[in-house]
């Protein structure tokens, strides 16, 4: 082995970071070699994002040393890191909705000809980048209106156009279905063969075993364990992440009552995303909805609560047609939606937890049309305590971890004592500890007699929390399975019909 081959692409030695008097990273050592995938794992708040932001030049370390291909590496900005060959794909989508896909892929570095943007070249290169990921969309199309999954793939394509030597992928499959994930993994294998090093951050531990060469586990700002290969039981990884032994992931599921609460009859989307959907949910039942990305699951949820229009069909509550024309109709009838994108649709991030609670519960918080800060905070404090939110009512929502943000979204709607709760991707992008808490909340609702619908791209999750699993494929209902007959194979057979 030559000296060049033995030298890590990137090395971190005793890297520390403090915000004020609080040290959040404690002496991190990390090596990334060319052509390998290193999974960086840990609960939210473990320090993964801080390490990634230091490597990508977003923040500066307080002390320690980094080396890039053997030379001192100290990027003072993301541009310096990109110029060196480091690209980062953030979990939070950073696309500009009013620009085209091609413009987003090359923003800040548009190809030019005779001093002006060479749109033909830009769109040809964008098309090639999209095709590498199997994305059949015109590069001239605006990003606005694209699905979350497609936006995530565009973020990935954007990083790939940088021809980076090191890629940091932060939850790259959080919004992707099975087919998109397979295409991404194929691309990662090609990048490995080209000598690209990859730091892969994900809470989907089963996919880590498929894609990673090594696993590094962080907890509370420290590197606590490193596995030299990915052939490690998931339970062992989880126990390293949380620092304790896990006896279970999913709580016991209660049996539903005989009484039907929600019925959906021959419902078809006014936007053409699904057609002829029929199902019902009993009191205290958890109905899981599975399917590949593009199957129409999210669009169905949005139609049930009046966000998206329907062309025909009915939504019945206790046998009465209450088909919502707008979200307010559903909310008044006791049907609430926890949306798939908590940051864009579930919270007003720059506002406090108390304000976010108040927006969903004005009838309980406002007196004679007035909302006082004291009353709003007292109301939010109840939800914070009940659902174990790690935060205070005066804190802004954007100061919380992903898991705690999700708890706030759920808690503010449950404060209305709804009869039906629809949760779309309830644990997307949150750590295993917060996931367990949310599963407890879901099962607790069922025990209280609430009808719950859980939509998830995580098949293990759907199987783990559901009394029955409804499977959608290409906008149609392809089958409903009882808990005893639902498994990976039976669900995927229906999902690919």
Automatic annotation (TrEMBL):
PROSITE patterns in alphabetical order: ABC_TRANSPORTER_1 (PS00211), ABC_TRANSPORTER_2 (PS50893)
tRNA-binding in keyword set: no
Name of the protein this chain belongs to: Sugar ABC transporter ATP-binding protein
A GO MF term: ATP binding
Coiled-coil regions listed in the entry: none
UniProt entry keywords in alphabetical sequence: ATP-binding, Cell membrane, Membrane, Nucleotide-binding, Repeat, Sugar transport, Translocase, Transport
Taxonomic lineage of the native organism: Bacteria, Pseudomonadati, Pseudomonadota, Alphaproteobacteria, Hyphomicrobiales
Any one Pfam family match given in the protein's UniProt record, by short name: ABC_tran
InterPro entries, sorted: AAA+_ATPase (IPR003593), ABC_carbohydrate_import_ATPase (IPR050107), ABC_transporter-like_ATP-bd (IPR003439), ABC_transporter-like_CS (IPR017871), P-loop_NTPase (IPR027417)
Highest taxon in the source lineage: Bacteria
């Amino acid at each position: 082995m030559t000296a060049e081959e033995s030298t890590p692409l990137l090395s971190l030695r005793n890297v520390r970071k403090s915000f004020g008097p609080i040290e959040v990273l404690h002496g991190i050592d990390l090596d990334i070699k060319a052509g390998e995938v290193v999974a960086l794992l840990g609960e939210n708040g473990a320090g993964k994002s801080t390490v990634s932001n230091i490597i990508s030049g977003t923040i500066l370390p307080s002390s320690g040393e980094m080396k890039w291909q053997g030379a001192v590496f100290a990027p003072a900005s993301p541009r310096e890191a990109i110029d060196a060959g480091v690209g980062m794909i953030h979990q939070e989508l950073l696309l500009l909705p009013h620009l085209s896909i091609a413009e987003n892929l090359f923003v800040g570095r548009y190809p030019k000809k005779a001093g002006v943007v060479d749109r033909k070249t830009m769109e040809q290169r964008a098309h090639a980048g999209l095709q590498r990921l199997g994305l059949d969309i015109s590069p001239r199309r605006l990003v606005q209106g694209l699905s979350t999954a497609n936006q995530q793939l565009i973020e990935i394509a954007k990083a790939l156009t940088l021809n980076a030597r090191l890629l940091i992928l932060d939850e790259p499959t959080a919004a992707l279905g099975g087919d998109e994930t397979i295409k991404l993994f194929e691309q990662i294998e090609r990048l490995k063969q080209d000598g690209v090093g990859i730091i892969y951050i994900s809470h989907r531990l089963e996919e880590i075993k498929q894609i990673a060469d090594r696993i590094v586990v962080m907890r509370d700002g420290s590197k606590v364990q490193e596995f030299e290969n990915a052939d490690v039981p998931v339970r062992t990884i989880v126990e390293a992440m949380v620092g304790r032994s896990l006896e279970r992931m999913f709580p016991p599921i209660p049996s539903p009552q005989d009484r039907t609460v929600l019925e959906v009859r021959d419902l078809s989307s006014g936007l053409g995303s699904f057609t002829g959907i029929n199902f019902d949910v009993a009191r205290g039942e958890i109905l899981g909805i599975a399917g590949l990305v593009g199957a129409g699951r999210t669009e169905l949820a949005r139609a049930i609560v009046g966000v998206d229009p329907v062309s025909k069909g009915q939504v019945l509550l206790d046998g009465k047609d209450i088909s919502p024309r707008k979200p307010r109709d559903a909310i008044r009838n006791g049907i609430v939606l926890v949306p798939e994108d908590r940051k864009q649709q579930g919270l007003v991030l720059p506002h406090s937890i108390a304000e976010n609670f108040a927006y969903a519960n004005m009838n309980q918080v406002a007196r004679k049309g007035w909302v006082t800060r004291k009353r709003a905070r007292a109301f939010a404090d109840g939800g914070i305590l009940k659902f174990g939110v790690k935060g205070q009512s005066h804190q802004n929502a954007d100061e919380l971890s992903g898991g705690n943000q999700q708890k706030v979204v759920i808690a503010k709607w449950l404060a209305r004592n709804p009869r039906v709760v629809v949760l779309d991707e309830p644990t997307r992008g949150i750590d295993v500890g917060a996931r367990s808490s949310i599963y407890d909340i879901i099962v607790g609702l069922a025990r209280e007699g609430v009808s719950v619908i859980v939509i998830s791209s995580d098949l293990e999750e759907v199987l783990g929390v559901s009394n029955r699993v409804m499977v959608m494929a290409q906008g149609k209902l392809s089958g409903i399975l009882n808990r005893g007959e639902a498994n990976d194979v039976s669900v995927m057979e229906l999902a690919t019909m």
